[in-house]
C-alpha cells in the first residue's frame, strides 16, 4: 500500500463507543484500524496505532480469567472474581489493586519434579466443555469488527510456575540443575496446552482472531528476575513453539511482560513475539531505535491532568507524536499508565500522526 495523503473529511465521526473507560470516536479513515495496525507491524503505519485498536478477549468461560480478575465479555462484581483456575489453583481477588494472587502458604509443589504427579492439565475435552457459546454471544455484543481481535492467555510459563510453587521457590527452581529438566518438560506441556486453547479461539471465532497475547512477567521495577542466558535456556524455546504455531496460522503474537526488562528485549524477539506490552520503565529512546523494527513496544504518552484546556490536550498529543517520530520506528500508544485520554487528545494524535507518518514511513 502506497502513500495515503491526509484528507480533512477523515475527521468526520462515523460512530462513538466506550472502550476500557475511554470514549472512542470512529472516523472515516482511509483503511480500517486493523489494517493500519497490521501496516504498523510491517513498519508502515498511516497513523498512530493505540491500545484502543485491539479488542481483547478475556472470556469468562476460561477459568483463568475470572480467577485472575480479568474478564472482558461480562461485567462481574468483585464477589465473582478470584477462585480456581484451569489447574485448580485457588486465587484471591484483591479489589483495591484490581487483580488476584494465589492464596499464599500452601503451594501445590515444593519441588518442580513433583509436577508429573501433582499437576492435572485440562484436557481438550474439558476445554471443549466450557461455555464457548456464551462466549460467542457476548462477543457479538461487545466486540467490533474493524479492530484487531486478540485472545489473552493471562498466565504463561514462569508465571504458571509461580502459581504452582510461589515466587521465591519458582525463581530458585529456574536455576537449580536438579529441577531444570522437570521445568522444561512442564513448560513444553504448557505450550501444547496453549496451542489447544488458541485453536479453540480460532474455532469459535473463525476468521476473526488476528493476534494472541501471552502473559509472562520477567522483571521488577528496577531490573530483571533472571539472566538472559537463563531465559534463553528455560523459557524461549517453549514460547517459540507457540509463536511459531501462531505465525503458521497467520496470527501475530504479543507478550505482556512487566518490569524493567530492557536487557531481555532480544529474548522476546528470539521467542518470536511481534509486540511487547510493557510498562513505562524502559528506556524507549534507546530501545525503540535499536529493536523497534522487530518488536513493537507499548509507549505511554504524557496526557495532561483532567480539567486541562483543549489546546493543552492537543499540544500534548503533538508532543507525543513528535517523540514517537524521533524514535524512527513505530510503537503502540498505551493508555493504562496515562491520565485519561480525552476525545481532543485522541483526535489530535490521529490528525497530526496522519500527516507526519506519511512523511516518515511512506
TrEMBL record:
GO terms for molecular function: methyltransferase activity; uroporphyrinogen decarboxylase activity. The keyword Transferase applies. Residues 179-322 form the Uroporphyrinogen decarboxylase (URO-D) domain. It holds the Pfam family URO-D. This is Methyltransferase. GO terms for biological process: methylation; porphyrin-containing compound biosynthetic process. It comes from Candidatus Blautia pullicola. Keywords: Methyltransferase, Transferase. The keyword Secreted does not apply.
Amino acid at each position: 500500500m502506497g502513500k495515503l495523503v491526509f484528507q480533512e473529511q477523515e475527521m468526520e465521526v462515523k460512530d462513538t463507543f466506550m472502550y476500557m473507560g475511554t470514549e472512542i470516536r470512529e472516523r472515516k479513515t482511509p483503511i480500517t484500524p486493523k489494517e493500519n495496525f497490521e501496516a504498523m507491524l510491517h513498519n508502515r503505519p498511516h497513523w498512530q496505532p493505540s491500545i484502543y485498536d485491539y479488542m481483547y478477549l478475556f472470556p469468562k468461560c476460561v477459568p483463568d480469567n475470572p480467577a485472575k480478575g480479568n474478564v472482558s465479555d461480562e461485567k462481574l462484581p468483585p464477589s465473582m472474581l478470584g477462585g480456581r483456575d484451569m489447574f485448580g489453583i485457588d486465587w484471591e481477588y484483591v479489589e483495591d489493586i484490581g487483580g488476584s494472587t494465589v492464596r499464599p502458604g500452601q503451594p501445590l509443589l515444593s519441588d518442580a519434579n513433583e509436577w508429573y504427579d501433582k499437576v492435572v492439565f485440562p484436557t481438550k475435552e474439558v476445554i471443549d466443555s466450557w461455555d464457548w457459546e456464551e462466549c460467542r454471544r457476548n462477543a457479538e455484543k461487545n466486540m467490533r469488527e474493524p479492530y484487531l481481535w486478540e485472545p489473552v492467555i493471562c498466565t504463561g510459563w514462569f508465571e504458571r510456575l509461580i502459581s504452582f510453587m510461589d515466587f521465591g521457590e519458582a525463581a530458585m527452581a529456574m536455576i537449580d540443575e536438579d529441577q531444570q529438566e522437570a521445568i522444561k518438560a512442564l513448560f513444553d506441556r504448557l505450550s501444547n496446552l496453549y496451542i489447544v486453547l488458541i485453536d479453540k479461539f480460532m474455532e469459535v471465532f473463525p476468521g476473526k482472531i488476528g493476534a494472541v497475547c501471552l502473559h509472562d512477567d520477567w522483571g521488577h521495577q528496577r531490573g530483571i528476575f533472571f539472566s538472559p542466558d537463563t531465559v534463553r535456556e528455560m523459557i524461549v524455546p517453549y514460547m517459540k513453539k507457540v509463536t511459531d504455531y501462531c505465525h503458521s496460522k497467520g496470527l501475530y503474537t504479543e507478550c505482556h511482560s512487566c518490569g524493567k526488562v530492557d536487557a531481555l528485549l532480544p529474548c522476546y524477539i528470539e521467542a518470536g513475539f511481534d509486540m511487547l506490552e510493557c510498562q513505562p520503565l524502559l528506556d524507549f529512546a534507546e530501545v525503540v531505535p535499536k529493536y523497534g523494527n522487530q518488536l513493537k513496544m507499548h509507549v505511554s504518552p504524557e496526557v495532561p491532568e483532567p480539567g486541562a484546556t483543549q489546546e493543552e490536550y492537543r499540544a500534548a498529543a503533538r508532543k507525543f507524536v513528535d517523540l514517537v517520530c524521533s524514535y524512527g520506528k513505530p510503537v503502540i500508544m498505551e493508555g493504562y499508565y496515562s491520565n485519561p485520554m480525552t476525545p481532543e487528545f485522541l483526535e489530535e494524535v490521529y490528525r497530526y500522526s496522519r500527516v507526519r507518518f506519511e512523511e516518515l514511513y511512506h
